[in-house]
């Protein structure tokens, strides 16, 4: 199991209980009649994601067995605060590690590379390259909200390394691509077909629409190197902070560039950048 994401909103009607991690949930204190403006009580959710081969079952019986994957599949498993299975999903992904996060309403966001054709409850999402990237949202009960696919039609690769969720529920994802990729804004394109550039993309949490996308590439005129977005976080003001590596040079656009330090040519360097909301 690669990654576990945990989000609890305690029910004021329930006694304190222990979640899967063993931590104690403290219920809300409330007095008087409920106000019409009070938000609905949300159920606690614990989610896990990773890769598997063969079959895997997170549920109570044979009806919850995930599809067999001979060459690698991604799973998403969601449980309630007592560890009871709520829902789980499996899809073909090769050896790409998926990422999972939960928003403030206990909705689950899944991001993974994948191959073949996938349908998570919306439209069919055929992979157009050697590996496409998929981002999907489910509500706290596993109902499909939206799902999007991104990749290069010329059999090249688009994949991710990390995902975070902004305070407003927008997923922010970083990774790398070869060739070109469009997230709903301007097309991002590498200088050469064999070049590898990083990306940072923010999608609308409500419908998966494009908010912004940034290419982490080579500075114009420089020899192509290799740039990767490796990690991302979002602060309380909604500003994304991305960390990655680069060789030769790196360009985040708008004149924000960096060069290899002396004596480090062909050795990856670490770079960090912060974006406005």
Mean pLDDT: 80
> What's the helical proportion of residues?
under 10%
Number of discrete helical segments = 0
Major β-sheet annotation: 4 strands, antiparallel
Low-confidence stretches: 1-35
Shape type: globular
Strand order of the largest sheet: 1-2-3-4
Can you walk me through this structure?
The protein is mainly beta. The chain has two domains: 1-150, no CATH class; 157-277. The chain has no helices and 21 strands. The protein has strands at residues 3-7, 45-54, 69-80, 85-92, 99-102, 108-114, 117-118, 125-126, 132-138, 144-150, 158-165, 171-178, 180-181, 188-189, 196-203, 210-216, 226-234, 240-247, 249-251, 257-259, 269-274. The strands form seven sheets. Strands 1-2-3-4 form a four-stranded antiparallel β-sheet, with no helix packed on it. A hairpin with a 6-residue loop joins strand 7 (117-118) and strand 8 (125-126). Mean pLDDT is 80; it is low at 1-35.
């Amino acid at each position: 199991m690669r990654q576990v994401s945990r989000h609890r909103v305690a029910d004021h009607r329930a006694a304190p209980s222990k979640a899967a991690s063993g931590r104690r949930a403290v219920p809300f204190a409330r007095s008087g009649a409920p106000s019409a403006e009070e938000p609905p009580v949300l159920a606690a959710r614990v989610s896990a994601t990773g890769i598997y081969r063969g079959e895997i079952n997170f549920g109570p019986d044979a009806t919850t067995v995930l599809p067999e994957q001979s060459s690698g599949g991604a799973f998403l498993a969601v449980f309630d605060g007592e560890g009871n299975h709520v829902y789980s999903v499996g899809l073909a992904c090769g050896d790409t590690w998926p990422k999972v996060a939960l928003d403030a309403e206990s909705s689950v966001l899944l991001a993974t590379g994948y191959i073949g054709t996938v349908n998570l409850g919306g439209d069919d999402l055929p992979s157009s390259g050697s590996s496409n990237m998929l981002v999907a949202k489910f509500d706290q009960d596993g109902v499909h909200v939206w799902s999007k696919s991104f990749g290069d039609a010329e059999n090249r690769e688009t994949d991710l390394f990390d995902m975070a969720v902004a305070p407003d529920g927008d997923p922010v994802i970083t990774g790398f691509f070869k060739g070109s990729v469009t997230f709903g804004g301007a097309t991002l394109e590498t200088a050469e077909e064999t070049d590898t550039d990083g990306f940072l993309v923010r999608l609308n949490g409500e419908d998966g629409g494009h908010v912004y996308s940034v290419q982490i590439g080579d500075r114009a005129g420089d020899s192509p190197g290799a740039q990767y977005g490796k990690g991302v976080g979002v602060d309380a003001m909604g500003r994304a902070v991305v960390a990655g590596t680069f060789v030769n040079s790196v360009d985040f656009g708008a004149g924000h560039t960096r060069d290899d330090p002396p004596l480090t040519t062909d050795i990856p360097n670490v770079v960090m950048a912060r974006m406005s909301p």
